[in-house]
Amino acid sequence: MGANDQNLFRESSQNPGNRESELALEDYLFADASRSNCRWESFGGIGSRGFLKDELLIKLPPPAPHDVMHDKKLALLAKRSLSLSYDLKELKGQQIGEKWVERLIEAARILQLTETEWYFVEDDDKGPFSPRNEIEALHALELNVRGLLMTVAAEPESPLFNLHKLVLERLNGLKSDSTAPSKNVSEINARLSTWAAEQGIKSMIYAAEFEGFGRGGAASTNLQTGDLVIEIPQDALISEDVAMESDMGPALKETPELTGETMVLLWSMRERHDEKSKYAPYFAALPETFHTGLGFGIGGLKELEGTLVADEIIQAREISPHVTHFSRINESNNTLQLFALRQCKAGEQCFLSYGSLPNSELLTFYGFLVKDNPYDIIPIDLDLPNEIPEQVELIEKYDVLSYHMVRGFHPLPTQLVAALRVACMEEDEIASFKADPRTVMISERNERDVYESLLSTFDSLLEPLEQQDDSSPEDTEETDPSDWDVLLAKQYKEGQRRVLESVKSECISKLSSL
């Protein structure tokens, strides 16, 4: 179970046609509170009834020095007059103004932006910027305020308590895939639970079957934010040390070029067939087969021919395998711990996020797809003019980029439109235009060229995505199981087609309004 800033547990189903919500993008449950980037500080003395005398600051952490978005994040915070420090003592009475809270959350969202999310942020866009960004921002604030509550005395109806309540409500109000588990626990799942208990594993979830998703983790009790969900002793974890201490250790030591991951892989390949192995119940509970893009056959690759993911799969086969990074061991008790980021009711499915990954990566390394994945993007690389000084000046002054992206069911990015406006300028427009191409249309002719150019680009990208037969990518009942790769390939192409059709529709709409 990966938990490097991951969340809610779900084991991957082996039914690729039933994975529309597998990623659980909105559900971000497990998080390691001990590794939070949040900060809190309090100043002033404590009064006799528990009120702070001077000031109570909620301090958001500045971007890390190594953050590639460091300067841009600080610039955007300044542009929007957002602070990293918020004083609760400035509030009057017991009430917390909605605008005050929204500005605090807006600042937290900016601090959690990735490069891709940043590209799509418009001037008037206050967020949420993505499911991942929203959950990270709210989680950071919740840890921040909770930490402050644990160190100061405050009345139950104080602004600090009310703020914590509001943040929790936002966290717990995020969209959830709530599915009921099967009431019948399979023999394999029962043995897995028994084995886990014997290994000293403490768990507030149990293995269960969920209709449409396969096996996953169901909460055995009502979980609240911050609750310890799973605690695994270090000696129960499969690791490089386990492989080296086994009877395979001497052979592995004689091959120094092997990486730790490769050692564990070789050890696992043999160990899973040993009925006397300590991990036998665990290996028995694993799926017999696991299909990913790395295992695509000729049929699947042919179906993907001409798409962006085809090259990714071929390149991935030539490099080191994809490795999931795990949570750090808690050195105080030598256990791996996963905590609840938000509440999950008893019997509900708990989810572990795979991260903000596009379908190309999910297909290649995990073997499933998410319908209308908000992290699916189509890259567009422009050849910007570099000879006419006035055009070059515009490009440099307004930071017009050559690399761009589009995503489905969202407006076309301002940066992309601005770049094309500059690229499509004619001589008279170059000499006379002095405004910001990100906000001002250069001319009706220029604007028409921009959207016609985009339409031509999208049409060329759509060509390899057209279905080669009349079968629906959603129709899995009559598909030969041996053609799982062809089925996944068709589903991927359908998703990419939907993205391109949506941005193409916007171009047509813009042209019709000129």
From TrEMBL:
<dbReference type="InterPro" id="IPR050600">
    <property type="entry name" value="SETD3_SETD6_MTase"/>
</dbReference>
<dbReference type="InterPro" id="IPR036464">
    <property type="entry name" value="Rubisco_LSMT_subst-bd_sf"/>
</dbReference>
<dbReference type="Pfam" id="PF09273">
    <property type="entry name" value="Rubis-subs-bind"/>
</dbReference>
<dbReference type="GO" id="GO:0032259">
    <property type="term" value="P:methylation"/>
</dbReference>
<dbReference type="GO" id="GO:0016279">
    <property type="term" value="F:protein-lysine N-methyltransferase activity"/>
</dbReference>
<feature type="region of interest" description="Disordered">
    <location>
        <begin position="464"/>
        <end position="484"/>
    </location>
</feature>
<dbReference type="InterPro" id="IPR046341">
    <property type="entry name" value="SET_dom_sf"/>
</dbReference>
<feature type="domain" description="Rubisco LSMT substrate-binding">
    <location>
        <begin position="405"/>
        <end position="466"/>
    </location>
</feature>
<keyword id="KW-0949">S-adenosyl-L-methionine</keyword>
<protein>
    <recommendedName>
        <fullName>Rubisco LSMT substrate-binding domain-containing protein</fullName>
    </recommendedName>
</protein>
<keyword id="KW-0489">Methyltransferase</keyword>
<keyword id="KW-0808">Transferase</keyword>
<feature type="compositionally biased region" description="Acidic residues">
    <location>
        <begin position="466"/>
        <end position="483"/>
    </location>
</feature>
<dbReference type="InterPro" id="IPR015353">
    <property type="entry name" value="Rubisco_LSMT_subst-bd"/>
</dbReference>
